[in-house]
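Human: I would love a firmer grasp of how sequence relates to backbone shape in proteins. Could you go through the record with me and say what the backbone is doing? Here is the record:
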Amino acid sequence: MALRTIEAGKNWLVAIALLVCLQVFGSLLLARSFKLTALGDLTQCALLLLCTVFSFATARKAESKARLFWALMALACGMWLWAQGLWTYFEIFLRQDVPNPFVGDVILFLHIVPMMGALAVQPHIKQGNQSAHFGSLDFLLLLIWWLYLYLFLVIPWQYVAPSETTYGHNFNLLYLSEHLVLLFALAFLLRRSSGAWRAIYAQCFGAALLYAVGSLAASTAIDLHLYYTGSLYDLPLVVAMAWFAYFALTGRRLLRQSLATETAAGAHGIWALG
């Protein structure tokens, strides 16, 4: 069973790598066209679907706080997939340019909130430590806070007094703030953790950092009317999506190793007492 799981994991890694390579070659070799747009949109949807499925699968096999951590990660990836799906609907099914401002921006913005909630769970701390408790009310307050900022700083320039320039500037500024909070939280947990969870946080930090750089570069290019789907601006985002998929795929293996280590340590302690 373990050997079969390892082989399946390798096959998925090959699939992720092939998707990234396909996007790289497409961005470098294809001119701006519907074919390149379809390639970019469908590749990103496929990678985000893998992120969501892998996170959900890991949550199903995890226990206690780790389960909540991965469930929130699955929610974040699912919301990200939803936003990308709306983008794909405009470009592939309607064959229209995605409007700026875009109705899916609020989903794209809020999908980082469940990631913050997952970090607030602090699954590397044992269940009995009450200082690490994170409940549904805490998550709701976190969501309301970021939604309030979005409604106050961004929405007025989309619907009340439409201004593409002001909307883009405020969205990028708030989006950057959100990314920075996520990265600082990851850096904090990375310093305070060890073993399997340290490896998990390190992977998440790398993927989140690349995602922050890539998404902000793409957002700026959109405001300057330089961006199109499948362009070189998509490459950092595609690699970040692949990294998140790898992060979720290997999460279960790392947690299994951690559990085995704790079990062995406990058995050793009992033997020593005997």
In short: The mean pLDDT is 87. The radius of gyration is 20 Å. DSSP finds nine helices and no strands in the chain.
